């Protein structure tokens, strides 16, 4: 059933309109420097994240795994991660815990030299639900399966609420995070609804090493679940999917809220390299992109490579036009905020 659900998620994400109604990155306008006084060809895009060095300030965020289609996608993404020297995450690995026959849909990324790999499991699966909670042995298994550098724990409780088979209990998650953080470098990741300041403080106290904000502005999993419910004529879940389609904290605002002394990955709604630069200007250490790469990775490696080259060019042009010779300088670029994002910064 999990395998079928993952296939559905891929197909819906590729073919339906599942984005939120407003992309808040458009509410950030960067101040142009007409006299940049730097050499474009000398711009340094390298970034250090925790114990990893990347050539560019973004990672391929967690997307998929658990189906043959996902194997092809992960293979192309991993090849790109090696070529461009950037990090890569895989989708939720719950499926392979329950069915070891799906191992190669995740472990295919081991065929490539990736500077950092991110294992991934859902927060709801860490505690007792209708099925058993994941054990330390389960976590160890998925971490070692892809020789991971970091363990992402993704928070998708809105999605759980609107999908037919969703888990309803969240009590005890923070205690499990504390336990895991004693053994693994844990990164907390939202999946489209963002973290509040209170969330960020609690996660820091629990010992996570970084926060991936995954805020509102891009893919809405409520929207994805709406289309799944539509297919089976589940009117209750269709209603919930529509109602919560635009729920959450905008990605740029969540970056601000999560400024608690931990590295931040800015993600959620990023469409191009200028948006990546905006995430860094807002305070992120680097950015994360997922659905933006999905269709290209499913089509061909050449399409994916061209897409990433365009994104890198966007980043460098933005750095050039803000007189930013390196990522540290980019963080100081000036900007203005427009509504509706501006109101979120006044909270």
TrEMBL record:
Q: Where in the cell is it found?
A: Cytoplasm
Q: Provide the GO biological process annotations.
A: isoprenoid biosynthetic process
**Domain FMN-dependent dehydrogenase spans what residues?**
15-94, 195-333
Output one GO MF annotation. Answer: oxidoreductase activity
Key word Ligase present: no
Q: Which reaction does it catalyse?
A: isopentenyl diphosphate = dimethylallyl diphosphate
Q: Where does Mg(2+) bind?
A: 160
One Pfam family, please name it.
FMN_dh
One GO CC term on file: cytoplasm
Enumerate the residues binding FMN: 61-64, 92, 120, 189, 219, 269-271, 290-291
Keywords for this protein: Cytoplasm, Flavoprotein, FMN, Isomerase, Isoprene biosynthesis, Magnesium, Metal-binding, NADP
Query: HAMAP family recorded for this chain?
Result: Idi_2
Q: What does this protein do?
A: Involved in the biosynthesis of isoprenoids. Catalyzes the 1,3-allylic rearrangement of the homoallylic substrate isopentenyl (IPP) to its allylic isomer, dimethylallyl diphosphate (DMAPP).
Protein name (record): Isopentenyl-diphosphate delta-isomerase
What would be the name of the gene that encodes this protein?
fni
